[in-house]
Write a structure and sequence with these properties.
Elements: E1 16-26, E2 29-38, H1 64-68
Antiparallel strand pairs: 1-2
């Protein structure tokens, strides 16, 4: 039986689907999360970028350029 294997290529370039979801809702409002999802055959690594401004300075969009890359 032959097995198809995929390897991660860090130099590969893929189109990215960008969309937003709400990951928490409460009396203080909704907390959004932006998802950058590569399109195409994987496997893809995962990156979790957590905003560190205690939701008082900056926003979850501060690292847009590097998250997209």
């Amino acid at each position: 039986m032959s097995r198809m294997t995929s390897r991660y290529d860090p130099a590969a370039v893929f189109d990215i689907r960008v969309f937003e979801e709400t990951y928490r809702s409460g009396p203080d409002g909704d907390w959004p999360v932006r998802i950058y999802q590569p399109q195409g055959p994987g496997p893809f690594p995962a990156l979790l970028d957590v905003h560190g401004g205690a939701w008082s300075t900056g926003s979850y969009l501060n690292n847009e350029r590097i998250d997209r890359a």
